[in-house]
Design brief:
The structure holds two protein chains of two kinds. By secondary structure, chain A is of the alpha+beta class. In chain A, the strands form three sheets. Chain A has a six-stranded mixed beta barrel. A six-stranded mixed beta barrel of chain A has the order 12-13-19-16-18-17. Classes of the chains: A alpha+beta, B alpha/beta.
Chain lengths: 887, 236
């Protein structure tokens, strides 16, 4: 029976309960939706990485031999290692049966050690086709590219690298842990799946001729070719081949077949020799030559014993794995062939995925907290008012003999059921809509096969806490009335007489105010809780709107800072790693010589920890500027006004970014110990200046400071004022990629679209929440004042005068809320960007006046709309009924 | 004496769906100026409806309501508001004073709607609350609050004082004090006001000049009391 009563009460107080339901539902929808996709990414990623044995370390060098591999595997803690080579190539896709037109795209070819019969590290997840088989003829293609281009097993790919062409059938469509997110090259910020593909295959299919060419290009063989005439002359002059070997070529194998080598040398030198002749030539010079051993594998991926910590918080460990990794890294550096050792965090695929998965945490956490906080205030007030209205009914139930516990359960069930239905609805809406939408959006760019949403236990905990909170509010609201004896509860709640209350001073300020102002001021003072709820509610929704718009403004400002203040060129040319001096000279003549070189380094931070970073050696004549604290650009050769501590051109003098100095506790008065990755010469140099960068916390250096160390400046990027839109990199020798500033900005903007989508959602939700709060505030305020308005109406006050009185207070509350919400919106946005978004970013809130105007006008518009809607009730007041009802 | 209130063939019909309910059915009534009138009747008889129509809180469905010479039967909302503002003083069982205004401010409130009122301070003193001018309602007892309500009503200097169970929430002593104040408003030196009280309490009827009994939407009887009792002599 009481359940029936409850259902009817809810029906009769529909608006109030719908408000509570809507707030709980909105908060839970956002929380569950965002968390399920964010946690889904983390858990799916961790599972993917664990199941397929993501490498823990990557070693790079000029080439790792079998003997090197044995040394690597012998390092304590190393479980397994696999060597391979990764090459940037061009791929032409031909569809089986010609079902579509063929096309050409940039591709990455990965060639696995021929000795690797089975892949144990970085295993394939095959979604179509056959598993990896080194003896099967063909290649395995990355899934996202295959899906974007509708490629299936049986289609053919022809890969081209310089003069080498490898053609093979697609045998399988795969996902691989270290290729979750891959870009064509470092100039691409946001990779579209259809524009770049990657394949894996056995090194067995790498054309031997290409490998012979690579060996022939080595310094030793080139030296032999250059001296071949001299050697032939020595032989003509009577020296035996053996004598020549002993006297002129003492470092060569004594069994070298010098005659054959010299016979074949002309064809090798003028590049007319075929694959067999090249083999014979190399074999003649190196009698022990075995083609199988000659493949060059510059990369080794390493599996370390034990489980690496995951991205999902529940999969993290106590740091012991990281310590083990540090130790193994140091031991691996002692192997001659190892130039650099990098961990997962330096893998762009892993780091990008991790950062994307964690990105939603900060936003969703803060937004949901604010949502719930504001919602809870409204719930408190609404439930309190509702139970008060039920006073007589509570008395009646008590008089009938219902036990207090039964009545408690009855009243608690209002809050309990409404919030329970709210959280369940929130789950039901949030996960299949927001969760699926955002997850699918992410999975268009990140290849984690078999991934899905994940509902973490914290979601259920939050849901339960919300239900408990609303239930508790109901409990505490009804407790006061239930503790009264039945007889008293049945009576009206007699207003307490407060004889000690201070009387109004005659002739005080109040007496000079108009009736409407006086009445509203007193009403505000009398209804502190309702007023507070209103102010906090309006402030909260204003804050949310400012934050949502402000975050978008801040990101646009960051793009302006990066792409207008720092990057001041029109086009950027990424040079080939093997660019010749002639090609470089041609580039300088055509496009100028504004260049930079990125030098990967390791250094010891202020805590004595070894860190990896990059020094950008900048000789760009201001085309890549360094910025001061206030984001003003400067040429690196000018120093940073007010933040330069010494000679910026002194050997090794470093620029460090502000946030790097703070985060890594770098002593700007002392020296930093660092070395270039792969080179064991350590430097100790000073920080000469501090600059600020919005997205990369690292070092920079003038060319003079770099060369002052005796290092050779070999730029990898050239900047020009020429607009090279539409120019193909293949048209310019020595250039591997061309990007225009506008395309870079577009790509970065594209990357931010995901966040912007989320912000759009928050804007809508904030607006909705604001509307509900203001409407609820107006409704409560109206219902509480109804009898006073009835009195005024009976006394002869006209409709518009009463509306004026009613609206005045709403305006005060709304304006106060807005005045508090606007600066708070800035503070929260600033906090989010400065402290919560990630170590690499250094930008705070930058909010356009339009965001404040929209938030203000939007909130005011809702208030006015609500006031108009609710004011109609004043017209409808049945004076007698209303006054009687009050009685 | 002139008629202050004239009701001619007045009906008030409430419709609920298909059904009609006649709260007042063809009522005719005349009330003279300066009389102390009590309307008696059981619940649902139509007393309050009668009071509401006289007070301009509602329009009749049929007939004419003439108060102070004005036929208010077809007045618009706005006209009724003006009429109430200038001509009527209301007093309710539960006082209906505004909790956020002091005693004096509650009475001064009438200045917001009419210029014809008397001095608010004087009105408060007239009801014996001169010492509580700057107190808030929740610092006063029920009787004191009802007196504030009376002060507010008489401060308008209205042609008619309409009271709906004015003593219903008060003890007998306080009730008597309130009645005395109300009755005093009918004295010629106080403006010769007409006071109409709706009540269940038949004992009050003994103090009235005129007693009107209402039953089932009809005027059952109108009794002219030749010798109204002194309020101090009535006990309930």
């Amino acid at each position: 029976m009481l359940i029936r009563k409850m259902l009817r009460d809810i029906k009769n107080n529909f608006t109030q309960f719908v408000t509570i339901f809507a707030m709980v539902t909105i908060a839970m929808t956002v929380y569950a939706g965002i968390c399920s996709y964010g946690d889904g990414m983390k858990v799916s990623g961790d599972r993917f990485y664990t199941d397929l044995n993501m490498p823990d370390l990557w070693l790079s060098g000029e080439g790792f031999t079998k003997s090197d591999m044995e040394k690597i595997k012998a390092v304590s803690g190393v479980k397994d290692a696999m060597r391979y080579i990764s090459i940037s190539m061009t791929g032409e896709i031909e569809y089986a049966g010609g079902r579509k037109a063929s096309f050409t795209v940039p591709m990455e070819g990965n060639f696995i050690d021929t000795a690797q019969k089975e892949i144990t590290i970085n295993r394939f997840h095959v979604t179509e086709g056959i598993p990896y088989d080194p003896d099967a003829e063909g290649m395995w293609l990355g899934r996202l590219f295959a899906e974007a281009r509708d490629i299936h097993p049986g289609d053919t790919i022809s890969l081209t690298y310089e003069e080498t062409e490898i053609t093979g059938k697609v045998l399988g469509i795969i996902s691989v842990p270290d290729h979750v997110y891959v870009t064509q090259d470092s100039s691409v910020i946001f990779q579209q799946a259809k524009d770049f593909g990657w394949v894996y295959m056995s090194m067995r299919y790498f054309p031997r001729e290409a490998m012979y060419d690579r060996i022939i290009e080595s310094e030793g063989i080139q030296g032999f070719l250059e001296s071949r005439d001299e050697l032939a002359l020595m032989h003509e002059n009577g020296m035996s081949w053996r004598d020549i070997l002993v006297t002129a070529l003492s470092d060569m194998d004594p069994d070298t077949d010098l005659k054959t080598a010299l016979d074949l040398a002309p064809g090798i030198a003028n590049d007319t020799a075929g694959e067999g002749e090249k083999h014979d030539f190399i074999k003649a010079l190196d009698p022990g030559f075995n083609p199988e051993d000659a493949y060059v594998y510059p990369i080794v991926c390493v599996d370390v014993e034990g489980e690496a910590p995951g991205i999902y918080p529940g999969n993290k460990d106590d740091g012991s794995f990281d310590k083990k990794i540090d130790r193994i890294k140091n031991e691996l550096y002692t192997i001659d062939a190892v130039d650099s050792v990098t961990g997962r965090d330096m893998s762009s695929s892993y780091a990008s995925y991790k950062s994307e998965a964690e990105e939603g945490d900060t936003y969703s956490g803060m937004f949901t907290f604010l949502f719930l906080f504001i919602a809870s205030l409204s719930v408190v007030t609404t439930m309190n008012r509702f139970v008060k209205k039920q006073r007589m009914q509570i008395g009646a139930l008590k008089a009938l003999g219902f036990r207090n516990s039964r009545i408690y359960r009855h009243y608690i069930s209002y809050g309990f059921f409404v919030s329970l239905v709210g959280v369940v609805t929130g789950f039901a809406i949030g996960i299949p809509t927001l969760g699926v939408h955002f997850f699918d959006m992410e999975m268009d760019f990140y290849d984690v096969s078999g991934g899905g949403l994940y509902i973490a236990p914290k979601n259920y905990i939050v849901a339960v806490l919300i239900v408990i909170m609303v239930t508790c509010v109901t409990f505490f609201s009804s407790r006061k009335i239930l503790s009264e004896p039945a007889a008293q509860t049945l009576k009206l709640e007699v207003p307490k007489i407060k004889p000690k209350k201070k009387s109004e001073k005659p002739g005080g300020i109040m007496s000079r105010l108009s009736f409407a102002v006086k009445w509203n001021l007193r009403d505000v003072a009398r209804s502190k809780a309702r007023t507070m709820m209103g102010v906090v509610g309006v402030a909260g929704s204003t804050l949310l709107i400012v934050m949502a718009f402000g975050m978008e403004d801040s990101m646009n400002h960051y793009l302006d800072w990066e792409f207008s203040n720092i990057l001041r060129f029109k086009s950027k040319l990424t040079m080939d790693s093997d660019i010749t001096n002639v090609e470089r000279g041609d580039l300088y003549r055509e496009y100028g010589n504004s260049t930079t070189q990125n030098v990967p380094i390791e250094y010891y931070d202020g805590n004595g920890m070894l860190q990896t970073s990059v020094i950008t050696v900048n000789d760009s004549s201001g085309m890549v500027a360094v910025c001061d604290h206030d984001q003003n650009p400067h040429d690196i050769n000018e120093g940073i006004p007010g933040n330069t501590f010494g000679d910026i051109n002194a050997p090794g003098a470093l620029y460090a970014t502000e946030k790097l100095v703070i985060n890594k506790k770098i002593d700007t008065n002392g020296k930093i110990r660092w070395h270039i990755l792969g080179i064991d010469d350590w430097y100790e140099t000073k920080i000469a200046a501090i600059n600020r960068d919005p997205q990369a916390q690292q070092f920079a250096m003038t060319r003079a400071a770099f060369e002052g160390l005796g290092e050779k400046y070999e730029p990898d990027t050239l900047y020009t004022d020429a607009d090279l839109t539409g120019v193909d990199d293949e048209e310019i020798d020595g250039v591997s990629a061309i990007s225009t500033l506008s395309s870079l900005r577009e790509q970065m903007g594209g990357m931010l679209n995901m966040i912007k989508g989320m912000l759009g959602l928050f804007i809508v939700m904030s607006g909705l929440l604001g509307f509900i709060i203001i409407y609820n505030m107006g409704l409560l305020s109206m219902s509480e004042k109804m009898y006073q308005f009835s009195t005024l109406k009976v006394l002869g006050f006209g409709f518009y005068r009463i509306v004026k009185i009613y609206t005045m207070q709403n305006i005060w509350i709304t304006v106060t809320g807005i005045l508090l919400g606007l600066p708070m919106g800035f503070v929260f946005t600033d906090f989010l960007f400065k402290y919560a978004i990630g170590e690499d970013y250094d930008f705070g809130a930058y909010i356009e006046p339009s965001a404040y105007i929209i938030a203000t006008l939007g909130t005011m518009a809702v208030m006015i709309f609500t006031s108009i809607v609710l004011a109609r009730n004043i017209k409808k007041i049945d004076m007698v009924a209303s006054l009687k009802a009050n009685e | 004496m002139a008629d202050k209130v004239i009701l001619r063939d007045v009906s008030k019909i409430y419709k609920t769906g298909e059904k009609e309910y006649r709260a007042l059915d063809h009522v005719n009534l005349n009330i003279e100026e300066g009389r102390f009138v009590v309307i008696l009747g059981p619940s649902g008889a139509g007393k309050s409806t009668l009071l509401n129509l006289i007070g301009g809180m509602d329009n009749p469905s049929e007939g004419d309501v003439i108060v102070n010479g004005e036929n208010i039967s077809n007045y618009s909302d706005k006209q009724l508001s003006d009429f109430r503002a200038h001509s009527i003083g209301f007093i309710f069982q539960f006082y209906n004073i505004l909790p956020s205004l002091t005693v004096l401010e509650n009475v001064e409130l009438v200045k917001e709607i009419t210029t014809s009122g008397i001095n608010a301070k004087q009105a408060v003193e007239d009801v014996g609350l001169g010492e509580h001018l700057y107190k808030f309602p929740n610092q006063l007892s029920g009787g004191e609050q009802q007196r504030v309500s009376i002060a507010r009503a008489i401060a308008k200097n209205p042609a008619l004082l309409l009271c709906d169970e004015p003593t219903g929430a008060l003890d007998s002593m306080t009730g008597a004090m309130v009645l005395k104040i109300l009755k005093r408003q009918c004295d010629s030196d106080r403006g010769n006001n007409t006071v109409i009280i709706v009540t269940h309490n038949a004992l009050i009827a003994d103090t009235a000049d005129v007693v009107i009994r209402v039953k089932n939407g009809h005027i059952e009887s109108v009794y002219e009391n030749p010798s109204p009792m002194n309020i101090d002599d009535v006990s309930w």
